[in-house]
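ok so I'm stuck.
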Amino acid sequence: MIFSMIAIPVLIIFVTLIALVAPKRYVMKRFRRAISWYGKGMALVPFPFVRVRYEDHSKGNSQGPYIFVSNHRSASDAFLMSVLPHEAIQVVNIWPFRIPVLGFFARFAGYLNIRVMDHELFLEKAAKLLDDKVSIIFFPEGTRSGGREMGSFHGSAFRLALQTNASIVPICITGNENMPPKGSWLMKPGTIKIRRLPAIQPQDYKGANVFTLKNRVREIMGRELDSMEGAA
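replied:
not stuck anymore, here's the structure
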């Protein structure tokens, strides 16, 4: 709370000053980067009791923008996406928009509320963001699992990929299922690992449908999570 009380006004002033002299597209880019800075700060607050380790296994094998697909174990996942060095927005449920101040930031930044948007409108807005070189982050389980077992995937991310021919980048997160435990704000010491996998490019999923594509990506992520946790 103390960090937020300091960081949020500073970020508001920073973006407001830029908005006075810069075009809207540049302002939006800086605003989304400011949100990422805030996320990085939130991830650093519990250091050294909680450490975050990011591994990039992408090998630079494709150009963005990307559709990022991450497993979802903890409320901290949204903040952890700040490790990605891209202009990006997140696809979220209703509750982030209800958080005072942060909900306004998310709405202004163009975060997509998949629960209240018409399906066609959602695809239209998401496709426009990709056209503007803005990556989109999905948590296709829809809600946090609260444990190590990954839930079933919803199809929106993969339907968007098939429609736009965007590269899909799996993100695997381990170690934060109890940071904090579901229903609590109490952080426990430990190490969170975030691993970015190689992009699945359009030619790699040519001819797939939503069902086969989402299950293929889920299997890739499941194997990687097993590997990460076996090496822990």
